[in-house]
């Protein structure tokens, strides 16, 4: 007579949950800072209920059966949310692996026949290993989403347009200039030119590690677009090694005003706006302090 | 007499996406720093590497680059070999001319990389792919 494995599990449902919770709570890696015991219990209980609802004698042999879709779905969402909360892969994996231990433990108590026990444990192992794998896949997907979101955030915060003076904008570029970033930079710069009514824009490339022909092409495009808007564009922050490389590459930047530092670019901008920055004369300061 | 080139270390890297270019450049930089290459030569090597990697991506959908540390006599250097299985280059001499491009770029990648490197070699076969080898000596 075949042993009704699902019956055993269903009968022992409460005890399985209790033991699993005990295991999890006793574990040294328990993250009480990230998840409360009540939430953990709710998650665990929901998983057991869903698993036992879908499990029957037939689909036990077939871990890929579509019957398990609700379980896999639940696990995936648990795993995704844990990845976002900052659980480590080990902690997330131990969650499902812990359940396997408890299930096998229950089988060991209920089934006396060795051959049957080995046979059934193997099936349970296979089924739960399959669940662990999909948990990991979901976990990695969760982490990738985090990375993608961060990439977007970096792209957004790394293109600030600064109004350094009335009519002068500065745009420090940090990192590599690819087509997508050039697009963002150009858009923010051009709208800012219109909004602020600036006539000079300084592009500072001190933070660009490598200037190859693609980066140069993107810079040239940005400069021509700025010119079309009626503003002048200065490129600053050209380091000595970058200058030598640009010459060897054969990139022609002769039509663009380039400066080695942001300060000299600002000076140039002041000059073309006929502004003057002067040090206050000391004797005039003194005379104001001590009137004679 | 030609002094033989000795291979000291070798590493392969695949460049298949735009995102692979930056890690690849960083890897080249690590190797250049290891052989104490000066900042200017480092920048030249990295820029040439960047040009060639981008070419490979743009025209051949990527390929494999081997990064090697080599020595010839007392000099040490970095040898990069870019191998792709793309369409190949119809006229290599034309492609090495400044300002020539079948894409919409400045047409400076290949000739620029040749000027930036100490030694440059290109082999291309239509329909089979292109192989570009550059060497930059630490003091060259």
UniProtKB/TrEMBL annotation, chain A:
Annotated transmembrane regions: none
STAS domain: residues covered: 158-269
UniProt KW Transmembrane keyword: no
Annotated keywords: Phosphoprotein
InterPro entries: Bact_StressResp_Reg (IPR051932), RsbRD_N_dom (IPR025751), STAS_dom (IPR002645), STAS_dom_sf (IPR036513)
CDD domains assigned: STAS_RsbR_RsbS_like
Keyword Phosphoprotein: yes
Origin superkingdom: Bacteria
Pfam families noted in UniProt: RsbRD_N, STAS
Protein name in UniProt: RsbT co-antagonist protein RsbR
TrEMBL record, chain B:
Protein name: Serine/threonine-protein kinase RsbT
The keyword Translocase appears for this protein: no
Keywords carried by this UniProt record: Kinase, Transferase
Superkingdom of origin: Bacteria
Record's keyword annotation contains Kinase: yes
Naturally occurring in which organism (per UniProt): Parapedobacter indicus
Pfam family, one: HATPase_c
GO molecular function: kinase activity
InterPro entries attached to this UniProt entry: HATPase_C_sf, HATPase_dom
Sequence ranges assigned to domain Histidine kinase/HSP90-like ATPase in this UniProt record: 40-140
